[in-house]
Amino acid sequence: AEQVLPGLPGRPEVVVLDPPRSGAGREVVESIVERAPARVVYVACDPAALARDLATFAGSGYRLAELRAFDAFPMTHHVECVALVVPENVGGSGHDADRGRT
User: N vs C: which end of the chain shows fewer Cβ within 10 Å?
Assistant: First the structure.
């Protein structure tokens, strides 16, 4: 991601982020924020790593709009989470209707 993001043209509407269990890390999150996407869909397999990365997003003007957890591995402690992260100035779930777009 650190190598791909800087070379992409324009501002992405949505970034889908599915990092390893250790999380995306500050460098990747900051690279994403620099691109100013309207939404980031973050798929996480470690809630602690997700929390660390969400703190980095929050410190960069983004907020958690929605969070869902999935028990993809029953009878284990593993859980998959899908988080929707949007800029602070976006209301609700970050959907176009919430931003006043038609």
Answer: C
Task: Please tell me the pTM assigned to this model.
Answer: 0.82
- Specify the CATH number for the domain of residue 69: 3.40.50.150
Q: Is residue 83 part of a domain?
A: yes
The predicted-structure confidence for 21-46, as pLDDT tens digits, reads as follows: 999 999 999 999 999 999 999 999 99
* Count of domains observed in the chain: 1
Asked about 81 being catalytic, the answer comes back as: no
Domain range for 35 is 10-99
**Do the domain assignments include residue 89?**
yes
Task: Determine the Cα–Cα distance for residues 86 and 72; give it in Å rounded to an integer.
Answer: 25
Q: Annotated catalytic residue: which of 15, 32, 44, 45? A: 45
Integer Cα distance of 11 and 94 in angstroms: 16
pLDDT at 93: 56
**71 among annotated binding-site residues:** no
